[in-house]
Specification:
Elements (H helix, E strand, L loop, with lengths): L1 H8 L7 H13 L5 H24 L4 E3 H6 L8 E9 L8 E9 L5 H19 L2 E5 L15 E4 L6 E3 L6
Parallel strand pairs: 3-4, 4-5
Antiparallel strand pairs: 1-2, 2-3, 2-6
Length: 170
């Protein structure tokens, strides 16, 4: 398996030149999977993380990013941990939702990917850091936003209805 994966990453390792060229052509022309598509997805994801960082700075919110959290020894990290939690006000609710972390997803939140993210990432973040917010920049299926009361909120953009929690000195 590792030999085949290595050859798929670098078709020049395939002894048969015709087969090596065909594999290379498949990789280059694959519009759904493969290293080129992964590179594009990674770049778009990074672009949205930078956008989120800029929005947090614009709101004067203090945060730690993934790199800072990894330097502190965390293995599973959301994109941003808010050093001072915010309350995301909900026009349909009497009380707001407290947010400790934000995860940026430069994708559409479909049922399959969202459930995988919940299992692989979001509940781990919730266990370590408390309630959080996931931004699906390209929208999501509304019915998937069913864990608000358990502490995982979904939005399609950066929320404008936030209030910073601060400690009273009185």
């Amino acid at each position: 398996k590792s030999v085949i994966n290595s050859m798929l990453r670098d078709p020049s390792q395939i002894p048969d030149g015709v087969l090596a060229n065909q594999v290379y052509q498949c990789i280059v022309n694959d519009c759904c999977y493969g290293p080129l598509v992964d590179c594009i997805k990674h770049a778009i994801g990074h672009e949205h993380e930078v956008l989120l960082r800029d929005l947090l700075l614009e709101k004067n919110l203090s945060f730690l990013d993934e790199d800072q959290l990894r330097a502190k020894g965390y293995d599973k990290t959301p994109d941003f941990i808010l050093q001072v939690p915010v309350v995301m006000l909900c026009p349909l609710a009497v009380e707001g939702h407290i947010i400790h972390w934000i995860e940026s997803k430069a994708s559409f939140g479909d049922e399959c990917s969202h459930h995988a993210y919940l299992h692989d990432q979001f509940w781990s973040y919730w266990n370590r850091f408390g309630p959080g917010l996931v931004i699906y920049w390209y929208g999501f299926i509304q019915e998937l936003d069913c864990n608000r009361e358990r502490g995982i909120l979904l939005k399609a953009c950066f929320p404008t209805d936030i209030v910073t929690l601060c400690h009273s000195t009185a």
